[in-house]
Each structure stands twice: as C-alpha cells, then as structure tokens.
Specification:
Layout lengths: L2 H18 L13 E9 L8 H23 L4 H13 L20 E7 L4 E8 L5 H11 L4 E3 H10 L13 H15 L15 E6 L5 E7 L20 E3 L4 E7 L1 H6 L2 H12 L3 H15 L4 E7 L4 E5 L3 E8 L2 E7 L3
Parallel strand pairs: 3-4
Antiparallel strand pairs: 1-5, 1-11, 2-3, 2-6, 5-6, 7-8, 8-9, 9-10, 11-12
This protein binds aspartic acid.
Length: about 350
C-alpha cells in the first residue's frame, strides 16, 4: 500500500471513531466551540423503544444541536446557544420540559429552569412556574435583569411576563402520554409501590452546556420535575450547584435524575470543585461523582459537562440518557448505554 493511501485510511478511521463512539477525542488545546445536551436519564432501553420513536428522539436532539452549533460556529455567545437549544427541547413533547412536562399530583404542570454563566459565575432560575412557555427564557431574564438568582411561583411568572417572556395557559403543557404516566404512577402509589422503581421513572429533563469562541462556558437546565410531585416540590434543576453550574476556570454541568440526591450532594458543584481543589480532569470528576458519591448513596441520573478546553463528558448511572454533542469535526447522539 502506498504511504499516502495508508495515511488517508488511518485519518478516516480516526475520524469515524470520534464521530460514532460517543467517547470524544481528548484535547489539550481549546477547541473553537463545543456544545453538549441531554434530554433526561432513566429507564431508557432499546427494547422499550419503537424504531419510529427512536428516530424522533434522535432527530430532535440533532435539531437542537444544529441550532446551538450554528450559533457558536457563527461566533455567537454561549448563552444564546444554550437558550435557543433548550427552547427547541422545551417545545418538543418528547421531553419533560416545557410542552410535554410531567404532571403534578393535582394534574397541573409546574416547571423549573436555571442558567449559569461561567464568565461571572452568576445565574438565574425560576421554580414552580405554570404559565411561562419557555422557562429557560425566564431563568435568563432573572440572571440578566434582576438582582436575584431564584424566583418562584406567581412572582416568577409576573417577573417573566414583565420582561417579555411568552405566557401561555397551563393546559398548553399537557400531553396525553404524560397524563397516562400520572395515572400509572398514581395507581402504583395506591398499591403502596415505591414510585421511583416504576418504569415511568424516566426523568426527561433537558439541559445544555456550551463553550463559545471567547472561552465562556454557560450551562442551563429545564424540567417539569417528577411525575406526581406534591406540595410544590422543587428538584435540583433550578438550583445552581446541584442541577446547573458553570465556571470558566473549571467546567459547566447540567444534571438530570432524582433531584433530591443531586441537591443533597451538590452534584454539579462537586464536579467543578474536584477539578479546582483536587486537580481532577473533567472525566475523573464526573466519574467519581456519578458512579461514586451519587450511586453509592442511591441517587440515579447523569450529567452532561464540558471543560474550558471543550472536553466533553456525558455520564449516567441509569440504563440510558438522551444525549449528544458537537464540536469541530466531531458529533454524537446517543440514547442507550453504548449507542
Ligand atoms: N432532576 C429533575 C428533578 O428532580 C428531574 C429530571 O431530571 O428529569 O426535578
């Protein structure tokens, strides 16, 4: 074989590995941009999926990544990429965020979202909102236009409306499939079952972390919370340090899973702190937290994260996690453990 032919084959092999395996190529140089998303972790198994459903998930994840990547490639800001990418996922009934959010025990939808900017380590969040079409836009407004970090309930809605976020009736979020899920969970509950072992315990929250050309990292997360939640329960998604974290000196993280555990173990912050204090790489920090701390203590879920060089991590201790990433010459979308 001629040497030039050999080199061409070797390069294409390397490229195809980086595009298909989901294990990105580690880089010491900062890439010009990177974006990673999740659409929730949980009992996601190939045998529970129809080919049409799988196709729909992959297409929507790719559509969201296309949007975010186009913004970053064009020199846009990480915060715009995160908000626009999450809006696509919020508007899709496939995910537990925005349209298609899970139901509370009372048959309503209460939404939580947060965003954090690694440049100034400041952020914004809303919890328990019922009428904001895209809660991630309300979180951004809290970050950019208030002196606060977290607003809740009616006050958060009034603020979002004042700042021009689109308002809808609560019924906008309703979908048949989430209503059926509520009925199944409530039927199990009336028989005294542990709700989190039920097949409906797919979490389905959405999240995105982006690194832009300026080296800024932004992370965002949006959710309907957990099916059958009661008493205005709020999970980790609107809690900076648990569901979302970003610091340009370490990494950005968006979580999905059983929120109570993510709050108790400050999961997103713990990952960044291990990098800052212990000198862990992103991969080591995420592994230790998701497969160590969290799993050992009974918490299920996962995170997507990226560091300041654009290294990507997408780890989960559940059966699967809807996920994907893009960076120059690399792309991946996956649902199950290995694909
Ligand atoms: N973490 C979210 C919560 O506990 C749920 C999810 O990730 O889907 O509210």
């Amino acid at each position: 074989m001629r040497q030039s032919t050999f080199i061409v084959i070797a390069i294409s092999l390397l490229l195809s590995m980086s595009c298909n395996s989901g294990k990105h190529v580690k880089s010491d140089e900062r890439v010009s941009y990177a974006i990673v998303i999740h659409g929730g972790a949980g009992t996601i198994k190939k045998e529970h999926m129809t080919p049409e459903k799988e196709k729909a998930y992959r297409a929507k994840l790719n559509e969201a990544l296309d949007r975010g990547e186009a913004i970053l490639k064009g020199g846009g800001l990480a915060i715009d990429a995160v908000v626009e990418t999450i809006k696509i996922l919020e508007n899709s009934p496939l995910f537990n965020a925005g349209k298609g959010a899970v139901f509370t025990a009372d048959g309503t939808n209460e939404l939580d979202a947060s965003i954090m900017n690694g440049e100034d380590t400041n952020g914004g969040a809303v919890a328990g909102v019922k009428t904001v079409k895209n809660p991630i836009t309300a979180a951004r407004a809290v970050y950019e236009k208030s002196n606060h970090v977290l607003l809740t309930g009616n006050g958060a809605e009034a603020f979002a409306q004042k700042e021009g976020c689109e308002i809808v009736d609560n019924t906008y979020f309703n979908t048949e499939s989430r209503l059926r899920a509520l009925e199944r969970v409530q039927a199990k509950e009336s028989q005294g079952s542990v709700i989190l072992n039920h097949p409906d315990s797919k979490f389905g929250t959405v999240g995105c972390v982006a690194l832009d050309r300026n080296g800024n990292i932004v992370a965002g997360t949006s959710t309907g919370g957990m099916t059958n939640k009661k008493f205005n329960r709020v999970g980790d998604s609107p809690i900076l340090g648990a569901g979302t974290y970003a610091d340009n000196t370490t990494c950005g993280v968006s979580s999905t899973g059983h929120g109570e555990f993510f709050i108790r173990y400050a999961v997103a912050y713990d990952i960044a702190a291990r990098m800052a204090y212990k000198g862990s790489t992103l991969e080591e920090a995420v592994d230790d937290v998701i497969h160590g701390t969290l799993k050992e203590r009974g918490g299920s879920g996962g995170v997507v994260a990226l560091d300041r060089k654009g290294n990507i991590s997408m780890e989960f201790n559940t059966e699967g996690m809807y996920r994907g990433y893009r960076k120059p010459n690399e792309q991946f979308v996956g649902l199950y453990k290995n694909e």
